[in-house]
Amino acid sequence: MSQDTIALASVEVFSSSLDKYAFGSTIQTISETDLEIHQGLPLSDYLLQRTGLFLRQYGSGMLSSLTMRGTSAGHNAVFWNGLPINSPSLGQSDFSILPVGGFDNAAIHFGSGGALYGTDAIGGAVHLTNKLRFEEGHKTQISTLFGSFGKWNQQLEYGFSDKKFSTRTRIYRNFSENDFLFRNITKMGTPIERQANSQIEQVGAMQDFAWKINNKNLISTSLWWNETKREIQPLMGSNTRDFQSDQNLRWVLDYFHFEKNKVWNVKSGLVRDDQSFNNSFNQTIQYFLAGDLDWKINNKWNSKSGIRFTHIQGNLSTYQAKESRVELYQSTNFQPFEGLGFSFNLRQMIYDGNLAPFTPSLGGEWKVWTNESNQIRLNSNLARSFKVPTLNDRFWVPGGNPDLESEKSWSSELGLNHIFKKETFELNQRLTVYRMRVDNWIIWLPKRNVWSPENIREVHNTGLEYGLEANQHAGEWNLNLKVNYAMTRAINQTDISENDRSKGNQLPYTPLHKFQSIIMVGKGTFSTFLNYQKVGERFTGTDGSGRLDPYQLWDIGSNYNWSIRYLNGSLGFQINNLFNTDYQVMPLRAMPGRNLQLNLNVRI
To answer: 26-185+240-603 is classed in which CATH architecture?
Structure first.
């Protein structure tokens, strides 16, 4: 008698779920496969090309700041393996110096997340994570990318893992002359010129290690060092020769203890940012220590309680500062029955002896209707968020204002999700409408002969987001379509002086419309895609004066997965800005025209 049942040893893989306590929120995940295809590119380029997000780019490869739901760059929290990495002095992250090859997965939380994540998450949050790998043996991967304007990026990765140990090392170098042609609209006749003083070189290394001590205990740690040297691209008509160097050191250590229905986590970490601009040097260091308990009380209730301590040291060109922060947080899930769930989150931060706004959120998801082919789900969320004033806002000499209050917001959203599955076709749609009010918005104003920040602005944000993904299988062929659309109204409610006319106008550099779509066709190991994005016009003045023209960009490319004995990998080719569109994301900041890239990944 043949044996048709084989007993396999159970394997437990743990990873914290981002959406576990985020019922009612919109979270977009980016897979490891998607990121691998774009290794060597900055995260800013990926987000612009593949999501409905808008980033303010100050030139090709230059400062790129994310804006979500009409908020400012400092209103979006960024995390790496659970550590907040926004600069405490500037209050934001530069997405152009976050290489796609520096992490394995990414997730974007749209909308207020202050109760879940803490300061800065008024408009949303971006989470970058490294994946724990076990029982994969030896693995080596070599990646290289060649492109127009002297671009040459390389990455080498080696990893080994068995049942108990896992280690992985990655090193990379990204380089670009960035000497593209552009039309100089500041000169008579708008001549075609070659961009000068915009070379970029980036090097970095990452080390991941994990150890399963036994079935109940796990230790993991990651170290990421990154250095970016950039010639700062001048404005059209300018001959400045600015230079900037960024060095970033990030380290995290996690200890997990597993019990029945409980997971204890202790996290410590370090984030150090050194920036040199011409002859000015600025440094910030953040130390973290946190602990929490994630507890499945029963089949209906889940709870997570925790505390995070942060110590910040700032050694800036005009001041030195220290600050300590303590945060207490509590998250609770309640699922009375299948298809209905609620999340209730609370957070309180104390910084430098001051109470940040108490931050609650309440969200719910309800599976309204389902049958063999369709599922309709309703999402809703009400949340408060906050942003503590940055070190520069409070301590910059001259002009810093130590009496600033935290920026704070209330937001609500309502979403409808529809999933249709039938045989070889699948359709997933989501529609979200939201409202947000941000108070105490900090802006810098002239005061006598010095600029100084004040809590003076109130902004009302309303909008609509739509996402669609459709898959059709036909034999060996696969057709995939993804669409993202965002309509964003961010209206200023405050005149800052008697002569100010900014009240009632859209915030500068915030497009009312952003549309992005990609269609991919594949057969077997070969696939090709056509990507399109359109960005609406933007105002350049607070009073609605000055406008940047809308623009649309097309990209086309293909990818081939291959395998030869012990080797396998992928070969990709892409043409960006297919129709050589002349456009500006920010005023007088030249952007490249048509350009090519070829990427090769080899795995052993």
So the answer is: Beta Barrel (2.40)
